[in-house]
Amino acid sequence: MRPVNAILWALSRVMRRDLGSFAALKVNNFFLFVLFLSYSNILYHMQPHSAYPFLLLVGFLLLFPMSSDPLAKIPAARFGLWPLAASQRFALRLTSTALSPVFWIALILLLLTARSLALAFVALSIAMQAAIFTARSPRWNTGVRLGFPGKLGPLIAAAIRQMLCVLDTYIALLLAIAGCAYRFFLPAPDPAAYPIFALLIALALSTYAQCLFGLDNRSALTRYRLLPLPLWQIFMAKDIAYLAILVILVAPLSMAAGLTSGLIALAIGRYSSVSRRSPQYRWRFTGGRVIVGVPQGVLGIGMGIAAHQVSLAFLAVAAAAYCVSLYVGAPFNRG
To answer: Is the pLDDT of residue 47 over 80?
Structure first.
């Protein structure tokens, strides 16, 4: 059993490092907003019920990476070449489940005599993994083929694929679905809620504006420098991908509020995005800095509301701030 023990020890180190990647949630703008919402309710002696739906959304999305199979961390080709007997592979499969966070959560629920909840939790985790397996199968996952014209087209397509690999995009998508359901299926929706949904969508994506190059490794950054393009055009390709997803999600709700907030998030996050190396993890929430996230949230929400209720001049101001950040951002880039 020595080979099995060695593999399990290596897997435990990988899982601990993988769980450490969830620390980015602490400096995610949307999560900070949820914490602020809960704290403000408690401060005024109210129950933090208003934060529960947002916490539920965050927890639901975190189940996808948390319920992953520990053995999936091992490349299939390498795992197939290891000289392990059938009994050793079975023992490895059986014992590796104890390394999954879902196993420990379900065990805690069972110890708390919440058996039905534990079974529902395990069933949901299995369903999520089945969905991930189906999405990654060759029949369904043939790659995201996006065709954009011009010399920036391939860069925009690559940036969109990167955004589809972080959980920020999917919490924004769930908020957009909720907003559209509220607007189009409720008998008497309140129009004042539309810009609120749009601003929450922009807030969910705002942390990514601090780390537009966070999913690029050093070789990718080197390739950017070798491209026959000025730096501002490379930045703009990332921004176009960001704004394209944002516009699609907020268009049925409030374009003015969502786009204004998104432009402010890009303008404020520009310096962090190009001046500091902030590696991110796929299928995780992105993490930034609180000192940048707070102005992104406050100014983005404030100017978004003003653009919707007062004048579109605030949208023009946000666009001007974005253009200035695009112009001055290139000299700050140190890779």
So the answer is: no
pTM value?
0.83
Average pLDDT over residues 150-167: 91
pLDDT band, residue 157 (cuts 50/70/90):
very high
Q: Is the pLDDT of residue 269 over 60?
A: yes
* Sign of the torsion formed by the C-alpha atoms of 178, 181, 186 and 189: positive
pLDDT at 113: 63
Both tokens of 308, joined, read 């919707």
Long-range CB pairs of 132-136, under 8 A, 24+ apart, other chains included: 132/64, 132/68
* Domain layout of the chain by residue ranges: 2-26+66-136, 153-332
Percent of residues, the chain, with pLDDT higher than 90: 41
Alpha carbon separation from 186 to 171, 172, 252, 255 (Å, rounded):
22, 21, 15, 21
